[in-house]
Amino acid sequence: MRRVATTLLAVACIAAALAQPSPARIGDDPRFDAAWRLVAERYWDLTQAAVDWDEARTLFGARPNDADDAVDRGLEELYAALGDDHSRYVPASRVDALRAELGDLPCVGVFGAAPWDAVHAQVGAAAALAASDAPAVLRTSGPIAYGRFPDGVGYVRMDDLVRAGTAEGLRRAVLDLADAGATGLILDLRGNPGGRLVTMMQAAGVFTRGFLWRALTRWSLPLPYPALGSPATALPLVVLIDGDVHSAAEGLAGALQANGRARIVGATSAGNVEAVLPFCLRDGSQAWLATGVLAPLRGATWEGRGVEPDVTVDPRTAAETARALLRNDATDP
Fold this sequence. Notes:
Elements: H1 2-19, H2 30-42, H3 53-61, H4 70-80, E1 88-90, H5 92-102, E2 110-111, H6 116-131, E3 139-141, E4 144-148, E5 153-157, H7 166-179, E6 184-188, E7 195-196, H8 197-205, E8 211-216, E9 223-226, E10 237-241, H9 247-258, E11 263-266, E12 274-280, E13 286-296, E14 311-312, H10 318-331
Parallel strand pairs: 5-6, 6-10, 10-11, 11-14
Antiparallel strand pairs: 1-13, 2-7, 2-12, 3-4, 4-5, 8-9, 8-13, 12-13
Helix pairs in contact: 2-4, 3-4, 7-8, 8-9
């Protein structure tokens, strides 16, 4: 009788367990569906992704929704699975921190820099490199450092295109150097991780005008982008780059080269020019998504190949090579 009772108790326990509802899946949350569809419809080229996107929906969507942040964590990992270092899901709780770091960016285009938590380290490395061949005395104009070599060549260092005041600081620095009698200008972008689309456009506008770029996407016609503002100088210009120049900084260097405004000295840039567009979702979260790639107004994109210098030299000695080019310009009749 005891054995029968034990068996009945076990059966009852199994039945009770089966009757309990299983934890909801994160794939059942409408936020998950919206974020997944955004990639499916807007990502620039899913054949380049590190994961099959349909399989990713099944795999990640099956995770249990068993914690308050389960959906946010799942979406962060889902976007990271794309493997492009630019696309990211930002939970609503972290949007304010992102704004504090990058400035108050609305849902507008950004050209993806290196992962944002690495930007400051890259900027520090760029400053250390530039300090070895920069003028002995540098002034600052917002985030921009600038000075003049004894031979009259002006020097401007732009560490990133993220910080507020970068384009304005560049314009003031260039005007100051021109007023001081600079015979030519060096724009040092070595180690620049890139940043905002509008900053790239404004920086180009310090030196040239017109439509310089187009964004290539699979969901719209190519979008043309112009330089913004009136040129501040017509002085000869040389831009320094290396393999750590990314995204909007590559776009700036490549556009100035493509329209004949500048010569490029150093080493080929990173070839990492995915166009990142922040999308605002209903719950206050954001999806930063690589929706296209940047290209010159005519010609192939720099994605995967980089900006190739006109004069290839060791980036550590690029400033001296640029000075020699500009001194020759100054002595030519």
